[in-house]
Amino acid sequence: MKKSFSDCYDLVVYQIYPRSFKDSNADGVGDLCGIISKLDYIKSLGANAIWLCPIFKSPQCDNGYDISDYRDIDPLYGTMDDFDRLLAAAHEKGIKIIMDFVANHTSSEHEWFREARSSKENPYHGYYYWADRPLNDWRSEFGGSAWEYNEATGEYYLHSFAVGQPDVNWTNPKVREEYKAIVDFWVNKGVDGFRCDVLDHISKDFKKGLRRNGPHLHEYIREVFGRDHLENIYTVGEAETTTESILATCGQDRKELKSVFQFSHLAVGRRGKYTPVPHRMDEVKKILVRWQRFTQKHDLLYILLTDNHDRPWFLSRMANDRELRYESATNIAAAVFLLKGIPFVYEGQEIGCANSHYSDLASFNDVECLGYYKENEGKIPESELLERINFGSRDNSRRPFAWDETESHGFTEAKEPWLPYATRSKEINLSSDEKSEKSISRFYRALFALRGEREALRRGSFRQLKRFKRNCFVYVRENEKEKILVVCNFEKAQKISGLPEGKLLLSNARRQSGANGEYAAFECAVYELE
Ligand code: NOJ
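That is the input. Now the predicted structure with 1-deoxynojirimycin docked in place:
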């Protein structure tokens, strides 16, 4: 990673959920050697960085977001030698590696917590939050009280997430020293960046009832990531954000993070996590435009994304994942990934993965959706509860990657994968996609190749052509030399006129006419303007 933030515009990040990417040792779980074997595939998409969801030692109660040793690899995924090989092989191919930094909580199996819970006098006791009785009525994100009783000390500890994920007490300077050393351990190995899990949670204010964005947040972030030797390390924070907090965290003079995810457009089309609500792509567009303008005005990096391991597929909720799956998936990619910012592609998105439908609870693993099920069992009819889980479970996007159409989809040689394949994996898999005339992954390759060739699509300015309001998204990216027009028609066919004409660069519909004229549902086209 180079010094200036501006170089980050050259990144195209591919997010890997290691359990579900590629299994190399026939145990049904994806692993590091599996990833090594697919680096050429990732490169072929035009990605030049990988964000690896946690691969550290963990009891896996939240699939690795419960870390019991920050300096070791979980045997499920391989060994440290495998990691070193992955890092070297990726670097050789020009691919950077971004690690997941999970610092709001550890696993309850982490040595710190095992020590901490043993007695009040233990030196590690102050690494966590303890109270004689629950300090408040906070609920865990995964259901139930956020306070859990610990017999040995007769106290309660805080866990914002699962019982097995106690929150770490960042007010303790020793804790901050530990995390600095952990960051340095991985930086010394040669990793290129960190994605920081629920980072806004590391500062709390019990008196004010604040679970996140507490008074010391910026000070802590600066203490860890503002150190000079990390200047070239890319960082992206996970935090619920307002424009003010993004400015405060990512301003070029802040010495905190290079970027922060912004998720508000991903809340469109659902109330809470499990209930769909009517929506239009126009709502997403409005939010994207607002953030494009804001980040552009303040010279901040913006993350371009629609999917990750914490959400059901955007395509299934927002567009047509049946008859118009190709058109929808490619349209969404053009609308989002040609904006100004850093594209984050989540594994499977590039083949148009869609939500699954299962009618038994045994086909789910996500601790969050299982917690939701438990909390609502008996209150909501079972069939409806299952529908909700099918709609909102994080498992939708966590099912093993289908590389081909065979029984085990080229994912594993084991009889069963760790989580059942997506229910449409016979239809939606890489090899079928690549054979199809309407190939989503081919479109992705073309899109990122274009982005790579055209400076204007990376560093150029963004300008929405506002008069095209009706369910389509029309914008221009430009610099002194290039001017590129992106036209994305949403949902229904319509005629678009009044556009400047130019040379066609990319289309998801073999467009014959120029920029003006009829656009089919979810048709998109990109033009070079004079
Ligand atoms: C956000 C992660 O992305 C999610 O998968 C995890 O469950 C929580 N943080 C807790 O670490």
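Residues 117 and 125 are 7 Å apart (CA to CA).
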